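Dear colleagues,

As part of the handover before I leave the project, I'm documenting each prediction I ran so the next person doesn't have to rerun anything. This entry is a single chain, and its sequence is reproduced below.
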Amino acid sequence: MKPVAVLLFDVDGTLLITRGATTRCIWQAAEMTLGHELPRMQLTSGRLDQQLFNDVLANAKIANAAKYLDHYKSTYLQLLDVELSAKRDQIKVMPGVRALLAKLAPRDDVLVGLLTGNFRESTMSKLNYAGIDAAIFKIGAFAEDSDERPGLVAAAMKQVGEHVSSSQLIIIGDTPRDIAAARQAGTRVLSVATGAYTLEQLKAENPDAAVATLEMTQPLDQLIQLAHQSRHI
């Protein structure tokens, strides 16, 4: 069997940004769900969608967020799809992403997937309106698959099967939470500074490699080579 490296891409800040659409819809959906205005706070990058809802309600001192989650999720997904459809020209695909995905797509020594805190449906909406073909991503771990980001790695591992070890996985993300999840799961991690964190902030968390943008492909190529080699160890 040919050695395989599994590349798991985050979405927001890594593949694309929605220029505020995600945040606007989170607040709007939360307020529609609760039926009143909520006090604003800074939303933390790298949190799962349900965690962000929990954060919003905790900030408003509202207990039992789980009771409202299904209604919130349905409302949020509808609002987001409408806004992204109307403002698709404002969605920005991050530098180097299209070229990198096109380069990876025909390779038989890599498996390209997603590992994101987004709900599955919102992920597909974002990719669709950004003009990124979701078919390139053969596996995916989404917010529905775990209550914590490290659990998403376990969900991805189940999809690739027992013949692939955690050392063959490479998480590609833009936050320290991606790095922490990788460390906990024993995977490699490439940090990219196209989100809310600077290159220096990401490097301080000691990822396996860090780049300013995904236009810089050599570090990822090196991690892929290491992932191939690890299969034989």
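The longest helix spans residues 66-86. The chain has a mean pLDDT of 96.

All the best with the project,
I.
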